[in-house]
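Hi Q.,

Before the meeting this afternoon, I wanted you to have the magnesium ion prediction in hand. No need to reply - just skim if you have a minute. The sequence and ligand are here:
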Amino acid sequence: MLTDTIQSSRRGSRSTTDGSRGAAAFLAKLDRLGIDGLEDLLFALPLRYEDETRLIPIGAMTPGQTGMIQATIELTEIRYAPRRQLICRIADGTGFLNLRFFHFHEIQRQALQRGKWIRAFGTCREGPLGHELIHPRYQVFHSERLPPLRDRLTPVYAKRDGISSKRTAGLVDSALALLRSGQLALVDRLPRPLMTDSTRSDLIDALENIHRPPPEASAEHLSEWLAPFRQRLALEELLAHALSLQKIRNEWIASRSYPIRIEPDDLNRFVTSLPWQMTHAQIRVWQEIKRDLERSIPMLRLLQGDVGSGKTVLAALTAFVTIRNQGQAAVMAPTELLIHQHVQTFTRWLAPHNIPVRSLHSHLTRKERRELLEELAHGLPCVVLGTQSLFQSDVEFPNLMTIVIDEQHRFGVAQRLNLADKGIQRPHQLIMTATPIPRTLAMSLYAGLDQSRLDELPPGRIPVVTVALPESRRPELMDRLGSLCRGGQQVFWVCPRVEDAEGSSGRAVETALHELHRALPDLRIGMIHGRLATEARQRIVADFQEGQIDILVATTIVEVGVDIPRANVMVIDGAERLGLLQLHQLRGRVGRGTQSGQCLLVYGPLSPEAQARLDILRKTTDGFLIAERDLEIRGPGELWGTRQSGGLAFRIADLYRDRALLARIPQAIRLVQEQYPESVEPLMQRWLGESLRYGQA
Ligand code: ADP
Ligand code: MG
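Predicted structure with the ligand bound:
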């Protein structure tokens, strides 16, 4: 009965049949906020946690440490050093510390009055005036009688349309209370036989612990504490993904495609017009793709290849033969930046063969967009590039024969595969990813897909030289960059984007820009970050490509696929904050030309795990090896590793950490399908709801 209430509320209708008004009101509220029911709320898990259950004495706080302090305000003043900033000096009897704000309001300055009490939460840094917290979260109190501290770790959630992390936490609390009191219910969808020791945990227990870990779980014990709950949810999530792949695969096999005829001489002319010879691996993978394309069952192939292994040409070959068969080829990539880059490459390679290259992007004028959509709807044989906007409902491709999805790890496979789920005649699909996954894991995870690997880099690549530098050696670094740039080199300067509880970012980029301008006034420095309009971003990248900019300061945006062979130096500022795979992918942006590339990792205070990460990067450039080592050195605080390191789009499962669970998936699928068929759809809905719905749009 209760289940029915919840199920129907997912579809937007509100039912109060069981008389629980509180529950109905709560669900109505979720509905108003645009959250699609209880599961949509509860299965969006925290990104990480902050510990506000205890105070750290200022005197005991070390650089790199994050936590809450309680103190009195001694002095608040505005300084120009050289930028306008607000400094608030506080003390707690064990020592003093500065709070530093670059962005602030006058009201804020007035509130930080001498003698007032304050609680501040942030990460301690070594500043010019001693230890400091930059832009901490804080609260000012008028008397010494401060409210009690929290009794649970504070979850940090990804911001969703207009709903802050704090608000989400409040909603989750209400939902958990309603579940505990029985006013709302959730069905446990994990079949009993799958609950072995490591995964045995009641669903509500698991959710409660994941969303609101008790203080006993703090810091060093967090991962141990959460292990059984996490494992249980991870198994469920992996199962849901595998089930949806299976479903798609079954539909795929039952459908028909457009068998593509390939004319060897014509193809040869194209291949010989490329600026270089294809590698053996590229040729082998092309043979695999070609065989699929010629069949009347649609292709469903995953191509894995490390950054720089040369995947783009396979997309171009696929597009070439499609258009020669009078078909339309869609190429999808995760960012407009990447689309822009692909447009240039595809035009260079394909236009001489009279193949129209089009792109659907956000700064087309209304008229341009209408004209393009008309061309497409009339079935013009062409290759069209775009982000997921390609699959908006007003875009029609009557002749769509092939789809290539680039840098898939940003999306999640299942989500994208669904997009092609229109009509009986289905396009061939090629999914390209740079996430290195050991072969055995890939076999379990992508059981339904055919797989290819590009396991050879184009010739002449000289391995990138990787150097790690402590912050204190910044002046030396600046000198080195200065002489490199004056010698004609171009540099990427990447600042990791760190989402804090308020979801802010971009400040690090501005600070770095400022610092570079000051140290190297004669160089041309550009900046891109997520808040810049797409057009502005593309202009800056184009300038960089043309050599008009010496140093490009960026957030991790550049991680995805940007190929600028002339930029041969990569600085990662704050390398200790990134995961191994993400560092590896960033580094893959350089060393693409004929000269040896350099990767300079600038680090602040290091945890032992961060130290190990930097060591590995200095020693190897092999993506698969790095992926393996990544698993071994995850620290206790690094719970959801793959997500942080730019891995696949899972909410809780972690391919490396959960490889034992992954091995159980094929069997688990059979069990669910044979004995619990009624759970199949709800499981997929629970973990992939958003993308499944999207797919149907
Ligand atoms: P990926 O998308 O796999 O990261 P790209 O397709 O962007 O890699 O290729 C990386 C760089 O290597 C590009 O500059 C590309 O032109 C070049 N490249 C690709 N294949 C070859 C090859 N066979 N020989 C020489 N250079 C190549
Ligand atoms: Mg690429």
